[in-house]
Fold this sequence. Notes:
There is one protein chain. The protein is of the alpha+beta class. The protein contains 15 helices and twelve strands. α11 (222-230) packs across α12 (262-276).
Amino acid sequence: MLRVPVHKIQPGMFLARPIPMPNDPYRFLLQRDREIPLDLVPRLKQLGILEVWVRHRGLEFLEDIIDENLGEHQREIYIGVRENFENLMRDITAKLDFSYFQSSISNFFSYLKSSSGSNILLQKLDAFDNYLLSHSANISYLALLVGMNLDRYLIDERRFKSAREAKELHLLGLGCLLHDIRKIQVPKAILHKPGHLTNDEMEVIRRHTTYGYEMVKGHIPATAAQIVLNHHQRWDGKGYPSRIDSLSGEELPPLAERQIPIFSRIAMMADIYDAATSERCYNNAKLPVRVLHEMRTTCRGFFDPVIETAFYGTVPPFPIGQVVELSDKSTAAVVDFNTDFPVSPKVQCLRRPNGEVVKNPALEEIDLSLHYDLEIASVDGQDVREWTASQITAELDPMLV
């Protein structure tokens, strides 16, 4: 099967995975093995569905890699979060079901630990009707994956805990699920404003961290509550919120480097990545390869270097199942993530440079890390080579970026 952007859907394409209703994980717009009607495409775009999984002969093995149950777990968490947050939006005095949040994340984390595909990011929430809530579900998933690849570092950074307690990643997932809880009360005119915010508007946005912390403090473990407060703190000390000296009342600089709790450092990276790769009312979703490039360059100094390394080994620049064009003009499908050389994955050829369709892609698999004269040139018509350059440099010498 292949990932196909909705605007690339063509007659004769059959679904490999059902398309869920954004507001109900148990209902579907279209079931698997059905041909996708072209008149459904505008509806998919309206619902924020960016891509669908379609059948492709020779690539059936990807169905075993892309775990369908993962999407079901993500949607169930999303629905629970939405129900809780909508109650709060209707009535500020409504009580959130914090026990639900804790149990759902614990169950999700247990599922990830038992899943064979839990070492890399496979798929974001694929259908939703509220960006803010889907964002919370997405960064919980991504943060958990990154945390699972930081085993030893978690123990080193949380020395005051036992080894088992240091790796209580369900608290990381819980904090991420609630990290933007007070943004639901930020005026939509500010939250969805295109272009730059004024200083006053930015201050309203920034208050969501402290107000959100006050809302969850005492209701969830302190480790998770700290994520709500500190998920915008930057490694270089230029994040927010500032601190207040408890004795003098003076304002102190924001946290920096290892002053920032490690779970907040992880959440911050996941937050930036998911926001940039998501469709927004004022901004189109960016390709993962572009976002990872910008995180290495534009965002240099934002992140803990150890977490950066784990993050880039968790998030593929070219997701499995994505269709790409190579520098020799052939078309291929990404079939494996090369953690040592992320922008040089394994691909299987779908169409040769002369346009000839490959009947058996498995017989023409290419490990791009072994072919220095061949690279991924474009995705969905966008030339990506300017974005892979910084990542190739990092593969050759991690100390350069």
